[in-house]
């Protein structure tokens, strides 16, 4: 029984690392480091094995996956000579990549419904042609700016109507992909801070189609550490007074986020956890800078001031130096396995138990990483 | 109903901050920052209020507490003019301090049993004279070197016999204090890495006298952060490969720990958490340096290397800059309140639920700070 | 023979620390730590002794210096009980403070020339009344936004004319103060990144009046370190590829610089050194954040990526944690002594040999701190 | 006219990077990043071009250079596919490597003079056979423990005599190599902290043979930064109170230095600069830890506390993350070119003008990196 993993942004760094990495793990060429669901806590959850995963997706780039894998080898993300060893699997996945939408604004006379239908057709063709039990759609494309609330987003009826209006751009691209995925009866994951499925109308759609979805914005670095440290201060009743962060990002992600509009989505997402964990606002800014020389790497520096007993001022700082795609890719595999199983077990709508993976978890205010893990593990136990 | 808090090392920086701080909190001169048990999770646990605490203790120094408080004001630990405002309380506590033992080795002809009896008499006199419902003994004196296992430590009978041997030094000072405390029917806390109650014979004594004890080595800085971060790596299946730490300590604590023998106790205690949390050994050393210019402050730098997906190498580092006495003092108050309540409720022997407070928690291998907190909170719920 | 030091912003944190510190040094209550000119390299330069300095100035605040000194004592900038010991000197200086201009825009019918004349009168009254040999004016007030070039700034003639136009705001406050100082025949120092004397017309005025001036923006932290480290990379032919900086500032300075317009002046000043030293542009941003909880302290984190042999990528980072007023105040004393002596020796116009003290040194492109020091020392030798 | 570069430790990481890098530079495959003498300041010094350098050396390892280069490619030190492109040059150099001495202790009946003669023969054979104008010997082998002073080291006469004593181990290996090099009329460089030429008898030998030598212990990381920062504190009259350092080293160097005896040599060398620059001792320790997971990389963390005006305490810290071989290799090329030219121009004995390159520069107390660079540049000017 095969499971499809349909990646929106299928030729990006994260997706390329996912496909190459899954092949490496299957071939025993690498250990499942960074794969949460490879742990014993998930052994009896009935998750589909990596062998069962088949990859495809949408992308607007036409650079083939083997070439992208070579680039990532030069960048130190994929170890040499892995890209060569899994070349066949990269080619197979590449053959299942279809052109994505470059612009969610329909041409004159066209409707967004028609744009969505083309996406739906790509996904269902993938599922039918390869005889897949089900398909999980995971959005790993570039971050979009935040979207202004619109009446059309409020419920499924108004949305459906609005999508039929020629020339109207009701949904941003990420939400159009989410709409297509849910309409096609696929589970959906928002791996980025883009709007995606995070609209009342799409929640209604997910429930109507009885498919689960989760998100958003995978936590892989600064925020992951934040959600490990902030609960420590809270448990010890130490009064955090400021928390400042500077994120230096290279690569395409850095370039995208250097755009203030897209960066805003990321900042909103990044600033969610602290007040939720500490119970109060904390002064301090979060910067996201593009530093091209860092390549696929990112460096985050966080500086925290806090008060202890009798008001004594203390401070803490940390620097996180990680490889973005290597941190993200195993989580994509984890999420694919988990939500595919949830779908199989009949779960519909937002899956808050997957909050462990996200900066801005849907349908929950729990941000403490250890508590999130305990919730995830308990849920996985129930999937058995 | 009054509760005695008998501090071994009663004129040290921690003890002075405890007495001044408790007075400040009672008088509403400071908020209970850093006091875990001031949180709502402990509101219904029936803990004795701060008002109920009465301080005394042993020390080999004769510098009175008001003078020590002035020194700590100059050092920035106690905010000006607090020491003046709580002078009366400092004097009251100082009047209850008795000379400690400078050397646990009895003079010729003398026995350790006799040394212990003098300590017991001091504590029972304090309890009886002030009409205290019970007394908690907390060891906050200088760290001792590790102690070699000895047959006399194996059970209470052999220990009792050995203590009666003239001239024999069966127990190190911290254990002699623990013996005295438990013998006097008092709950006991090992706040330092010294041996204290951590001997089979003393565990037997605690159970025989139906008193609880807990320890050891309060976690207030580097190890606290370690036990918040290491579980994050574990939950994310990131493979920690090295963890190196350098601790720069000023003040008396730094000078004591610069002695390799005493420093060894601290290092053993500090290196307990990582293998327990990660499930495997990790390369890397832990240094403890004395830097007198830091005064009462300590700085810890930790550097961590880890592998992610496909073996990609990443790293993290943090710097913690804290004031030792200000971090420790509120925990002393927390532990006094919690173990006094446990004693009242009939708990005897090692209290593993207090592991949240310690680097080397007795009777448990759980080091993850969030899990420790959840265990503590649940236990406090049962104390109600 | 007395020398006047007229501080613009005379009741600010820097000025208060200057006055208290000078008094402490004269009374032997503190060692001249941070005072460059106290070193043997300057012993024979004929600089006026600290005893010769008499303080006064302009400010728009009316909080007296003794009260400001108390605030700085609570903040940990001035050690207790120094403020009490030098109370008399603080009062004496406070009595010589005159109201500054809150707004350089003249009221209807009024001219900037008239505003300037009032400032000139204050300074000359100070000089005449106290029989001072000369007066040095040092601008230590809040940073202003950058000023757009204007025809009136081009030469002294057009400026003089423009200043006589009723209602016209030709000069920003800092430049009006500089104009007044130079017109009064006083040496002038731009201690901040504000425009100050940095206009062709004012340079002409300085030369016409035969007075020296220097600036601008004292380097006391991040930039000081930058100008020590960047030459190391250059000398070693290591290719710096990015240099990112985040500055966390508390206090009034932080609040002022959190305003994007004023912050812009500071950023321009901060970003001057790197391209000058390295000989090429370097990617990376400089952030200035206001973190009120830091009080008078500032923390800078800089992250540098560089390439070594065969293109290997390496990185360096540093964190600087300093007290702004304590870093600035001794430099004010140094500059007062040095420029007073230069004035005495007949130096007129921009004094590039003082570049050692500034982020954006006038009339020179030399930013390497060691080279600047060697130039300063050589110049001091010639002042003898 | 060809110049020989004879590397002691010719199959180590540094030497391999030197040979591969020189070939890459000659072929235009890489820019001379990290090569000090490639700068314009050295253009007219008459230095031998890279084309003129021919490599050979001693080593106790038999792993050929092409294989070592592959290992360094996997480690990220030599970029792929450079090792393949310069395979011929690696093989050529490898053919000129002769077995080194594994132990400087002569077998029974043998003398160190005989051991030295074998080394001399290797070097002169290399020079004669390849028709080299001169040979520079550079010691880049593992660090040795410090050597106790001995009467035989005092002058050349006693040394010569002692070397002839059968079975006597008068010199450590590094000094035996230095003795051989100088005896063969070759310039000599101590690139490590080992004793090498740093003995009065060997200085006499260098002068007698009219050859120059320099050392010791190339400064490539922590100490390089120290000697850039410490002068900044000194120039600003800021009082450095403590300087603590932790060095995490992977690779063979880390393993060698983890041995306390060898580590001692490195520490002595590392601790030379601070007191010389600051003019007073500073508290703080320097740790050298082996962290195998770091591979060829090293991380240094330094923490500095200092006092400013009125005794205010401040701090600074930095982290340096470098690739050891990539930092060292270009300096080997620089030193080879510079000392070959000095030899050509008749310079004999210790060359203190090369102090810029070393942690523990011979024959000078100048450690400030900028001043060292200025001295080097001036000297290079005189070589023209």
From TrEMBL, chains A, B, C, D:
Q: What is this protein called?
A: Myo-inositol-1-phosphate synthase
Q: Which residues form the Myo-inositol-1-phosphate synthase GAPDH-like domain?
A: 221-325
* Species of provenance: Planotetraspora phitsanulokensis
Mind listing the GO molecular function terms for this protein?
A: inositol-3-phosphate synthase activity
Q: GO BP, one example?
A: phospholipid biosynthetic process
Q: Which family does it belong to?
A: Belongs to the myo-inositol 1-phosphate synthase family.
**Which Pfam family, any one of them, does this sequence belong to?**
NAD_binding_5
